Amino acid sequence: GDAGAKAIAEALKDNHSITTLYLQSNKIGDAGAQAVAEALKVNYTINYLHIRSNQIGDAGAQAIAEALKVNKSITSFYIDRGNPIGSVGVKYLADALKINKSIVTFGTAFNNIGNIVKKEIETALQINANFPAEAKKEALAKQIAEQAKQKEDERLAKEAKIREQEEAEAAKEAARLKAIEEAKQQEAERLEQEAK
Fold this sequence. Notes:
By secondary structure, the protein is mostly helical. Helices cover 62% and strands 6% of the residues. Helix 2 links the parallel strand 1 and strand 2.
């Protein structure tokens, strides 16, 4: 349901390894779809999203559409069959397809739309397919660069944490040795006093 979708969406905001998200038949409504949409705005590794047979309506479709306008990683997307999305929601998705340059496969088996909207989706897909190959290559190159940067940032952060731990251990060891040296010094002074 929506609660589960929200939990998954929160995890996806920080996860940069999952590439396939299969959420079919999970009773996800508009609220869950909106949460997933927010995650898709910042996640750049998901390339396959299957969210058919849920309870997503026009509001959920609108949120997903807004995410698709900025997402550059999704290449296959299925939200059509089994969701109560009407003509309004499908128009939002069509508008997104006219902008998105990464989607290659898009499910079109919507149940609650008329022929005019079906034609609008077909036109949007044609526009999407006609984006210059160079533009799609550029989008893919940007995605790969972003992934590489994320991995490098994670590596550097990990190394910094290790260095911090090592420095803390070294400081702790230095303090221990200093305490031992001071204790020895005090003992030597005590023995010297006794000898006098």
